[in-house]
Amino acid sequence: MRRIGPMLCLAVLLWSPLSHAQSLGEAYWVHGTNPDGSQYRGTVALFYSPRLDAYSVTWQIAGEVWDGSGAFTPSASTFEVSYDGGVAIYRLNPDGTLDGVWGADARSLTGREIWFPR
């Protein structure tokens, strides 16, 4: 009987919404297209804060760094991010990639990105 308690706790943790919120990876390669059609590549790092139930996001592209924060919605498999000068929304795909759009505001989402787990 003593072993049921720890196993039950583990099952609750594995199926809780908090554990699903952590289903994003920590490091990605990013391939993107700017609104003018030019392409770029770089990296994205995510750090999950359980206290805030949110992510900090850092892009490194062509020697420049952009920081943002985001929230993952497991029921919709979407990751919404606000960053220096804009917003982005991504869809988490079954293969672990994220693809999405970004722009200065929700009406101008003309840039595109796909993130590949590293």
Task: Characterize the main sheet.
Answer: 8 strands, antiparallel, barrel
- Give the overall average pLDDT: 84
The coarse overall form would be: globular
The first-level CATH class is given as Mainly Beta
**How is the largest sheet built, in terms of strand order?**
1-2-3-4-5-6-7-8
Structural class: mainly beta
Domains counted in the coordinates: how many? Answer: 1
Please state the CA-atom Rg, rounded to the nearest Å: 17 Å
Order of helices and strands: HHEEEEEEEE
Number of helices: 2
Q: Please, what is the oligomeric state?
A: single chain
Strand runs, count: 8
CATH superfamily: Quinohemoprotein amine dehydrogenase alpha subunit, domain 2
Under the CATH scheme, the architecture is Beta Barrel
Walk me through the structure.
With 118 residues, this protein is mostly beta strands. It has a single domain, classed as Lipocalin. 14% of the residues lie in helices and 53% in strands. The protein contains two helices and eight strands, in the order ααββββββββ. It has an eight-stranded antiparallel beta barrel. Strand 7 and strand 8 form a beta hairpin. It is globular, with a radius of gyration of 17 Å. The N and C termini lie far apart (42 Å). The relative contact order is 0.18. The N terminus is likely disordered.
